Amino acid sequence: MSLKKSLVAYARVVAKRQAAARGLTVYPDDTFLVSFPRSGNTWTRFLVCNLINPDDPVNFAQLESRIPEIYDVTDRALRAFPRPRIIKSHESFDPRYKKVIYIVRDPRDVLLSYYEFQLKRRVITEECGLEDFVPRFMESEFEPKTGSWRDHVLSWTATRGGQKNFLLLRYEDMLANTQQESTKIASFLGFDSSPDRIAQAVDLSSADRMRTLEKEQSGQWKETKNTRQDKPFVRKAASGGWKSALPEHCVAQIETAWGDVMRSVGYELWTKTKS
User: What is the pLDDT of residues 84-100, one digit of tens each?
Assistant: First the structure.
């Protein structure tokens, strides 16, 4: 076999094993759940799954078979999924994504959640304090392909904001009025949005239920099975924790760099207004 043919054959083998990621085959009837990491995407997947079929509530062991993530499944496997597909992604703007639910979360809280997640995954240890972590997080050290929170949010809101096939959800609004925001999701996806069905899906996707499922299935789900078991994946499911956990100069770092985009999606800047 010639070198060229050998390389082609090798590429085909690799393609069958590699996660789809940016090389995903996109179909026109796909819907994408997109967010910067640690912004509520997993919770949204639970809500969507339980809106689709509340009589068969989803759990962590089943999640990838219902709403797969492009970083853990090959493109070949994803092409075999029933259509229309709903797919999880953390990608920055991709013009091929025609229908998108985009979840945004206050970056000051994203930072805290992301810090704990890197500890859980053993990417860092407690020797890396939160203040040392802030500039590393902001410089996209842990997400070089995803980019910073600012770049990620701006890539989607500046290109798709206000369009009919783009639904922007704020994590904080989902916490404050889960029923209302879930109704938006159901309507956007063309699902039954009756109050009883929405209420059932919300109950099945509660943080308490997800925590219970995580304890039972942490060894079965790819995000948790090889991680520190003393660190939960589903944490407080709250907003505003940064106010007590982040030193003021760290808040100022974030707001100075990302304040324009934070304001554009409804987050008030603290260091600019604090008396």
Answer: 999 999 999 999 999 99
- Report pTM: 0.90
Give me 189's structure tokens.
Answer: 């996806």
Which tens digit of pLDDT belongs to each residue from 130-166? 999 999 999 999 988 899 999 999 999 999 999 999 9
List strands edge to edge, sheet with 166-170: 86-89, 31-35, 100-104, 166-170
Name the residue among 118, 69, 112, 116 with its Cα closest to residue 90: 69
Positive or negative, the Cα torsion across 145, 150, 151, 152?
Answer: positive
Q: Tell whether omega for the bond before 84 is within 30 degrees of 0, i.e. cis.
A: yes
The alpha carbon of residue 109 and the mean position of all alpha carbons in its chain are separated, in whole angstroms, by 14
The overall longest dimension of the chain from CA atoms, in Å, is: 74
Give mean pLDDT, residues 182-204: 96
Beta strands in 38-187 (DSSP E): 86-89, 100-104, 166-170
Residue 267 Rama label (left phi>0; alpha psi -120 to 50; beta) = beta
Amino acid letter, residue 265: V
Judge whether 63 and 221 are in contact, CB under 8 Å.
yes
- Residue 62: pLDDT over 90: yes
Q: How many residues does the chain have?
A: 275
